[in-house]
Amino acid sequence: MIQFANRLNTVQEYYFSKKLKEVRQLISEGKPIINLGIGSPDLQPPQPVIKAIQDSLFEEGAHKYQSYQGLPEFRNAVSKFYQEKYQVSINPENEVLPLMGSKEGIMHISLALLNEGDEVLIPNPGYPTYSSVTNLIGAKSVYYELDALNQWQPNFEELAQRDLSKVKLMWVNYPHMPTGTKALKDTYEQLIAFGKKHKIIIVNDNPYSFILNNEPKSILQVDGAKDIALELNSLSKSFNMAGWRVGKLIGNPTFLNEVLKVKTQMDSGMFYGIQKGAIKALELENDWFETQNKIYEARQQLVFELAERLECSFDRNTSGMFVWAKLQNEKKSEEMINDLLYNKHLFVAPGTVFGTQGEGYIRFSLCVSEEKIKEAISRV
């Protein structure tokens, strides 16, 4: 009998991959499922971006292998974007590394930095990929708990009391997924000080900063941040380009060079046309974000109404493309979402997908039309 790699014993199939099979089966049986569980933008990318990729297909060299470090024009566009949107100066020559989406970056960073037995600080609740990749590498996931009482910010007093001698990497994600908590300047400053003191590399995963947020922030705005921090960013959410797989890693050239060693073994460069489209996206004016946010604001208000109908409580001052809602009367997350799925034909995400601190919560996606959200409201 074939024996598969032992590392697979540390992970399971991604929850949404598995659950969506069940959802598709219900749809095939004629059930009118409304999917409020997935954060995949349903809106179209900007029209100039579509035109840019179309035009690029006929340019010389468009279909050849591309540089692992991306087109110089792409890196320049990232640098200019960071300067204009975050007031952060980025050297396009050596402080930008293009990625096929942020999820790829999580794996590359982990492979470059972690040895077996190293420890990684991971937010709870948080993006499940941080822990699954850590486990696949053979490192150890060590969770730091976030909660509503502390505004879903790290508790630095509690962290300081731990044995951090084996911790090499800390994952941070603001605006936070799944709660939608916005980035705080004070938190970023404390993270940089914490990383320097304990020699822990801080990686901020930052794909949501322009969605329902008038004050986008980057951890690299903090003085000295590049000494110890990296930032992942993406075009998936902000420009409705999730399937294009365009991300970038920003920060210290020494760190990026080590990550590049891994990346060069994993792919053969990002497709030329996608880079040209990404350049056009990064050059767009702020009215693009304003138009998108009007759509998300209208959807958010309807999801608030839906959450209220389900007797949930929530924070109205959040960003990102989700609504994080607390169940009442100690209801369990999995029981609630199964009740909604089988009896109301509504699919939402249970908070437990994101960690033990997600028990008692559910997460609604805003990647659904107003018409469908209104239909969901009518069902409850």
TrEMBL record:
Task: Please state every residue range assigned to the domain named Aminotransferase class I/classII large.
Answer: 32-380
Q: What is the lineage of its organism?
A: Bacteria, Pseudomonadati, Bacteroidota, Flavobacteriia, Flavobacteriales
Give the protein's recorded name. Answer: Aminotransferase
Q: Which cofactor does it need?
A: pyridoxal 5'-phosphate
- Superkingdom assignment: Bacteria
Query: Which InterPro entries does the protein's record reference?
Result: Aminotransferase_I/II_large (IPR004839), LL-DAP_aminotransferase (IPR050881), NHTrfase_class1_PyrdxlP-BS (IPR004838), PyrdxlP-dep_Trfase (IPR015424), PyrdxlP-dep_Trfase_major (IPR015421), PyrdxlP-dep_Trfase_small (IPR015422)
**Which PROSITE patterns does the UniProt entry name for this protein?**
AA_TRANSFER_CLASS_1 (PS00105)
- Record-listed E.C. numbers: 2.6.1.-
Instruction: Tell me the SUPFAM superfamilies matching this sequence.
Output: PLP-dependent transferases
- Gene Ontology molecular function: transaminase activity
* Similarity annotation: Belongs to the class-I pyridoxal-phosphate-dependent aminotransferase family.
Keywords of this protein's UniProt record, alphabetized? Aminotransferase, Transferase
